[in-house]
Specification:
Blueprint: H1 25-38, E1 47-48, H2 50-57, H3 61-73, E2 77-80, E3 84-87, H4 92-116, H5 119-123, H6 126-138, H7 141-157, H8 162-175, H9 180-185, H10 189-204, H11 208-226
Helix pairs in contact: 1-3, 2-3, 4-8, 4-11, 6-7, 6-10, 7-8, 10-11
Keywords: DNA-binding, Transcription, Transcription regulation
Pfam families: FCD, GntR
Protein name: GntR family transcriptional regulator
Length: about 230
Amino acid sequence: MADRRSSAPSAAPVLPTLGGKRSSYRERVADALRAALIAGELRAGEVYSAPTLAARFGVSATPVREAMLDLAKEGLVDTVPNKGFRVTVVSERQLDEYTHIRSLVEIPTTVGLAATADPVSLDALRPAAREIVTAAAAGDLIAYVEADTRFHLGLLALAGNAHLVEVVGDLRKRSRLYGLNALAESGRLEASAEEHLELLDALLARDEAAVREVMTRHLGHVRGLWAAH
C-alpha cells in the first residue's frame, strides 16, 4: 500500500480538535501538536523549535511554546534548553508496562459493565464506534484517534469512577504514539476498528466471557501492533 503521508498536502494544516471541543486557543494548538505526535508527523527523538512548529501549523510561536510545555507535563516531549522540545521515545519496557496496567484496569472494568451498564448508555456509544470504523477505512488517523478516545473513555465512564478514566486517558496518550501509520497502510487498522462494534454487541448481550475475549484481543493489538515502531 502506498505511503499515505507522501500524498499529504504541503500546505499548513488546520488545527484539528482531538478529544472534544476546547475552550482556549492554547488548548487547540496543544491538540494539533498532540495529534501530529500520534499520527507520526512529529518523530520520536527529534528536536523541534517553537518557531519551526509555529510556521508548520500556521500559528504564532507563543501559543506553540505554551502548548509544548503542556505536552511536556504529559510526558510526551522533553524540554531542550535553547533548542526547543524533543519528542519522547517510549522504550519497549515502558510499552509493556503501560499495556499491563491498562489490562489490569480496563478488562475487569469493562467485563463488569456487562452486568451493570444501562443498555441505552451502551448503545449511545455506537455512533463513536462507527466513526472509528469509517476513519480506519479512510486512513484518517486523527479522526480515528479522536473517536477511539471518546469511545473507550466514554465506556469506562459508565463505571462511575472518574479517576480511573483519567488514569487510562493518560496511559493511552503515552502508549499510542507510534505505529498507527504502519497499521493503516497494511490494512490491519480496519479489523481492529471493527472490534469496537463487536465489544458493544457483547456488552448488550450481557456476555461477560465474550467481553473479556474481545477486550483481551483488543489490548493485545495496542502492544503488538499499534505500539510497534
